[in-house]
Amino acid sequence: MLEIFGFSVAVVAIGTLARGRKISFLLAGSLVIAIFLLIRLAALLLARDNEETFFSVFGAWAWAALVVLFLKFMVAVRTIKKLA
Fold first, then answer.
1. How many CB atoms lie within 10 A of CB 67?
2. At CB < 8 A and 24+ separation, what contacts does 1-7 make?
3. DSSP letter (8 states) at residue 7
4. What confidence score (pLDDT) does residue 51 get?
5. Contact 18, 71 (CB under 8 A)
6. Alpha carbons 67 and 61: distance in angstroms, whole number
7. Which residues of the chain have pLDDT under 70?
8. Which of 21, 25, 28, 62 is the most interior residue, by most CB within 10 Å?
């Protein structure tokens, strides 16, 4: 339950960051949600023990962090280059 609340907050933050970078917040949010769920569901289907399921939780959150880093640094660099 706590993970669902935390992920909801993370998706809202990603959407807000995407809107601030002048890209589609719906695209960014739906991309994060889709891949997050894909990683978690694939791990449930393929995992043989709880340790592998733990790594899927880590991998899913790492994916969300990678999207944030991409929005924070790569999109900002592209917008600055377009303005110059």
1. 20
2. 3/57, 7/36, 7/64
3. H
4. 78
5. yes
6. 10
7. 76-84
8. 28
